[in-house]
Amino acid sequence: MRRRIAGLLAGLLALFLLTGCQGKSLPQGMEESELLAQGREIVALLVAEDWQAVYDRMRADGQEKSSAQDIQDYMQALTKACGPYVKEKDAMTTGQVLDGGEEYGTAVFYCKHEKKSVVYRIAFSTGMELMGFQAEKQSLFG
Predict the structure, then answer these.
(1) What H or E segment, with its residue span, contains residue 76?
(2) 3-state secondary structure at position 20
(3) What are phi and psi of 131, to 5 degrees?
(4) Quick one: which of 2, 24, 51, 129 has the fewest CB in 10 Å?
(5) Which residues pair with 132 in a beta bridge?
(6) 109: which strand partners?
(7) What is the pTM of this model?
(8) 78 closest CA partner among 109, 53, 46, 42
């Protein structure tokens, strides 16, 4: 009986979390297909270990906060924990607003690595400049 209740609660929690995963609409003028295509290019550079190319694609304020070495260190730690990239499982886009009011779009990729799943979030300005990225082990609940 406990297993059934636990299973039911886990199922309801998963349903609740999945319905909450819909992103906000993209800023005016941003196209979902273009955002996903550009995001996939960044993920491809990251998994190909082309840290300098990712750094070079970042706009100036992103370059001031990090270096190609920072990107390398970040991604090598992730790869050590999650294993090499295998494939993309799902993708979505969402709109965001910085504290200063700047709108931007984020391409989100749910990817399988050999040991763990990883979520890549690639942020672009409305002018399609790479603002930054995040890659992290996917948590059990979203």
Answers:
(1) helix 68-82
(2) coil
(3) -90, -35
(4) 2
(5) 123
(6) 91, 120
(7) 0.81
(8) 46
Amino acid present at 75: M
Across the strands, what pairs with 104?
96, 125
CB count in 10 Å sphere of residue 114: 10
Distance (Å, rounded) from C-alpha 120 to C-alpha 106? 10
- In tens, the pLDDT along 43-81 reads 999 999 999 999 999 999 999 999 999 999 999 999 999
Residues 49, 75, 84, CA angle at the centre, nearest 5°? 70
As given in the structure block, the two tokens for residue 30 are 């941003």
Distances (CA, A) of 98 to 15, 46, 109, 114, 136: 29, 24, 21, 34, 21
Q: Are 35 and 107 in contact (CB under 8 A)?
A: yes
* Long-range contacts at 134-137 (CB < 8 A, ≥ 24 apart): 135/46, 135/74, 135/75, 135/78, 136/78, 137/78, 137/81, 137/82
